[in-house]
Design goal:
heterodimer, A: 12-stranded mixed β-sheet, B: about 170 residues, elongated
Chain lengths: ~475, ~170
Amino acid sequence: MTDSRKKDLLSDFIDDLNKERKPRAYHTSQVDEETEKLFETVRAVRRTQSTREDEERKENSLPAAGGGRAGDRSQQKGKSSLAWRFKKSALVAAAALIIFAAFLGVMDMEFLPRQNIVHAVVRAYEDLESYAGTAEIRSKSNGEVDYQETIEITYQKPWKYRAVHQFDGREVKNISDGERLVSIYPHDITVDNVFPEKELWRYHIGNQVWELKGAEEVRELGEETLLDRQALVLEYRYTDYYHRMWIDKETNLPLRKELTHHDGTSTLVVEFKEIEINPQVDPELFLHEGLENREETMILEQEKEWEYEEINHRGSLEEIKTPVNLDKLKENLPSHFELFAVGILEQNPFYDYVLRFRGEQEMDFLDVYLSSSPGNRAFFSDSQLGKLGEGYVEVNKGAWNVMDLYTGNSSIARWVTPEFEVFLVANRGSNLPLNLLEKVSGEEMEKATLPQLKREGIEFPVNKEGH
Amino acid sequence: MISAGVTRDLEELIGDLWPEIYRFVYYKVQNKEEAEELTQDAFKRVIPKLQEGKVEEGKVRAYTFQTARNLLKDLWRRRGRDPQMVDLENIQEGGLWESTREERQEEKMVLEEAMAFLSEDYQQVINLRIVEGYSVKETALKMGRNPGAIRSLQYRALQSLREILEERGFFHD
């Protein structure tokens, strides 16, 4: 993160607290440890003030309005004064008291900083540049293996990978240079120019770390030896399912992940049989330009029945024809989000374009799909509906397997008007999709039920099975 | 909001507890939006337990405080901070708010001591922006600088303060 970005982030954070709103910094990306400490410093400064106000309130025997600080900080301008300079003797006495209390063990031990395994895993992944190894995906049903796949993978941040999959006696290669993905199947080659990461989700270490980071509960179960490595076994709850993860104690990175179905009859295991962290990587491994000299393309030329298909072409912002105010959308994006790709979705049945933005962290993203022919779509389970502008909005911070492309949970907001449809997808839990739609429309969403919206004459999609 | 299946006694209990829990959460997160959400979430977890009679009568208050605290820990963990799970079985009545009063006073003293080490400029920008709540633009006018300089100044000021606090083992849950 650049210094300039940190300054902006900190300034926005102060403004957000002053306005008593949820800090924007957390909406879309993970805040690094150093910045989090700066944020905590800001909170602590505010707390000293609230402690003082609490004392004053107590003296005056006044109940707290809403149980907390009365009104916005901005309403208190001019009432507070600089109150930082204590008399030296008082400070020395106070400091001595604290040190004495700590020495006697009187103070809460939580006062001391501690290392946490989830944090350590996240940090280890942040430090990782590349990995190479063999992953195995294994599915067991009633004690018998019913599916097995091995993947020889070399991965380099961000999104460069060469993976050779073996399953059911077949071989499939996925090669991404970070910009586009070439998938080589037994009888055809497919090139996806917009979603290079889409074949990684089932086994990628980054996805596993991201999942652990987003877990609602984490429990340490103990230690085990796995592949001659000492591993810490964790159990965590993520999207209502309990998973187990084996963390290599040497690298702090996942070695194995296990998901057992609620009824205990089936298990899915993703395990690295071999893994090397930060190996030297030949950059040519990820290049598509070399493909014409490689064996697979030669075979392609010899056997005419092989098919070559390109899906999702790259385009430019100028090519996009939409009534949606894209300038406003870009203006309101957090400044660390950058446009990664403009996709022209010629074969997508619902949307014409996608704008792909990436945040600072590898897994931070925002995809904006646009359509000039809004259609009937079914809602995700547990979505919130509302009215926005001339249309309606569907909001869901944990939509499941969106378009079969975003595996697991994602945060979505879909705005449908008679003229256009905009569909935003971002990291699970993010407020960014709805916030951006509100900024673009210049209005706030009015929460409403389906019948309420129908009464207002808004046309609605019908629910379809399987969505 | 809470409504279905809530008896009059329970409603009264929640009504009494809500401001206390809110104040505790607000103290930690320092903004109303998050404090309201987390308080609501805490009660959403606690109410079913109360309805099922799974919390002893004398421990309701402590249990609710502990639930709120665990939610805060979950939040911090998601933000890369240090989560520690708390055993809800071992909660004593009296709650965490009271037990942390001393801690709050200590935090205040440590912070005020640290502030005293900062230059006047640093103290002033922190006071105007955070304590008084002025915008960058207003602070710039008051301090006779441009907004860019204020953003840099507040960044340096808070970095210095953070370093002093870190030396004193300040950062914890």
